[in-house]
From TrEMBL:
One of its GO terms (molecular function) is snoRNA binding. One of its GO terms (biological process) is maturation of SSU-rRNA from tricistronic rRNA transcript (SSU-rRNA, 5.8S rRNA, LSU-rRNA). Gene3D superfamilies: Tetratricopeptide repeat domain. Its main location: nucleus. Belongs to the UTP6 family. Residues 12-89 form the U3 small nucleolar RNA-associated protein 6 N-terminal domain. It is found in: Nucleus, Nucleolus. GO terms for cellular component: Pwp2p-containing subcomplex of 90S preribosome; small-subunit processome. The keyword Protein transport does not apply. Keywords: Nucleus, Repeat, rRNA processing. It comes from Carpinus fangiana. This is U3 small nucleolar RNA-associated protein 6 N-terminal domain-containing protein.
């Protein structure tokens, strides 16, 4: 017990200078300082005692320190005091996180908290070290690979490094649908950023080429020889073309940015070939071992149905005219290339997506929205006649109702169209009630 007390005392002594500074500058009162010291003492003695702490103990300690630091910063601003150095607070947080991840190295939540704190503090060197250790500890956790890729894409602006993280993650988690979906989302965000920059520079609207096929650039996660280099084959895009993502700002004045963007508009990257290849590879990965003998009840078909629907919804997020120009082509590609069972035309989720497709690429206030909605309602009638089991039909009606209901709250929708939607919802609700009886 004395060893635990000594450890706790050592770490408490490290915080004394910070507490004295807070009291001297009147950031916290003397009573508040006493309360802070007592609270820290309780935490330190708990985590220093063998068997007394858990990952949740460290999580509460971390949350307390973060709230305390936030409160101190707010009081400094409100009282117009000279800003204090956050070095001591940052050092203390790193110490707690280090000890927590060493003691409970199997807690992914603590590791993710550590990574998030490093990111907010801009501690890039430490973040790289922690991320490397985290990947070694949890190579089969897709959230780790997704976090790393998002960091490279959102913070560092390095789409090449982000793609590398996703591809390595797929080597360890080839059958995790969320990793495939987030990989496709990352590529779509890159396409949307390039398209937005083209519009800002007045280079015209980048049109997706629906006839573009992948000649040699394709994803294949089943061939071990092709995966030896930690890379998945993708449509070729030169380094000059990718300069527009992280280096274009330096070139803007010389006009080279426009040249690079014009090159990129003709490459597979902007025309949706990479997201399309990712979707095709995911369908190949989840396909049943023997498609000809697998029935509609085979679990693989349900996974394919849900994964394809997730891709459809993700691509639909970029279907706005001011977003990715290739989204419409990709939505159609998902509908045309989703594998189906021999004894059923479509799964519940993809049948729902087929109904959504006409209005997915049209704005509510667009002149052609009424005709698109008419086509969607026609497809709803067709989908409800598919050869499905009772439970599947009920799930289809539920999926369609959950899609149509939010549209009633859309202010841009004409009253006549809302009336049509209400009638359709009444039919779907009646079908659900009959199926449940």
């Amino acid at each position: 017990m004395s060893g635990a007390a000594d450890k706790a005392r050592f770490h408490l002594e490290q915080s004394v200078p910070e507490l004295r500074e807070w009291e001297r500058r009147d950031i916290f009162s003397k009573d508040e300082i006493t309360s802070i010291a007592r609270k820290r003492s309780d935490f330190e003695h708990t985590i220093a005692t063998r068997g007394a702490s858990s990952p949740s103990t460290y999580a509460r300690y971390i949350a307390y320190e973060l709230n305390l630091s936030t409160l101190a910063c707010k009081r400094v601003v409100r009282r117009r005091l000279k800003s204090t150095s956050s070095h001591s607070s940052q050092k203390r947080m790193f110490s707690i996180l280090d000890r927590g991840t060493r003691k409970h190295h199997g807690s992914l939540e603590l590791w993710m908290q550590y990574l998030s704190y490093c990111r907010t503090q801009g501690a890039r060197k430490r973040l790289q070290r922690v991320l490397t250790e985290c990947v070694r500890m949890f190579p089969t956790k897709p959230e780790v690979w997704i976090w790393a890729a998002r960091y490279e894409m959102d913070i560092k602006g390095d789409v090449g490094a982000a793609r590398g993280w996703m591809q390595r993650g797929l080597r360890f988690c080839p059958r995790r649908t969320e990793l495939w979906i987030e990989y496709g989302r990352l590529e779509m965000e890159f396409v949307a950023k390039i398209a937005a920059r083209r519009r800002i520079l007045g280079l015209g609207k980048a049109e997706a080429d629906p006839t573009m096929e992948l000649d040699s650039g394709h994803l294949d996660v089943d061939d071990d020889e092709e995966m030896d280099a930690d890379e998945i084959a993708l449509p070729a895009v030169s380094a000059e073309e990718f300069e527009t993502q992280d280096g274009g700002e330096r070139k803007r004045g010389s006009g080279l940015d426009q040249v690079a963007l014009e090159k990129l508009s003709k490459s597979p990257a902007l025309n949706g070939a990479i997201p399309k290849a990712i979707f095709d590879a995911s369908m190949k990965q989840f396909a049943p071992a023997s498609p000809s003998t697998a029935s509609r009840t085979d679990g693989a078909w349900r996974i394919i149905d849900q994964t394809a629907a997730d891709f459809f919804h993700m691509f639909a997020e970029f279907a706005a005219p001011a977003s990715a120009p290739c989204a419409g082509m990709l939505l159609q590609h998902v509908l045309d290339n989703t594998p189906v069972s021999q004894d059923v035309e479509r799964g519940v989720q993809m049948a729902s997506c087929m109904c959504r497709h006409p209005v997915a690429i049209v704005e509510f206030d667009a002149p052609d929205f009424p005709s698109a909605l008419r086509e969607s309602l026609k497809r709803i009638k067709q989908a409800r006649t598919l050869d499905m089991e009772k439970e599947q039909k009920q799930n289809l009606d539920l999926a369609l109702s959950s899609w149509l209901t939010p549209m009633l709250e859309e202010n841009r929708l004409a009253p006549e169209l809302k009336l049509v939607l209400k009638t359709t919802l009444a039919i779907l609700d009646h079908g659900e009630s009959n199926a449940s009886q």
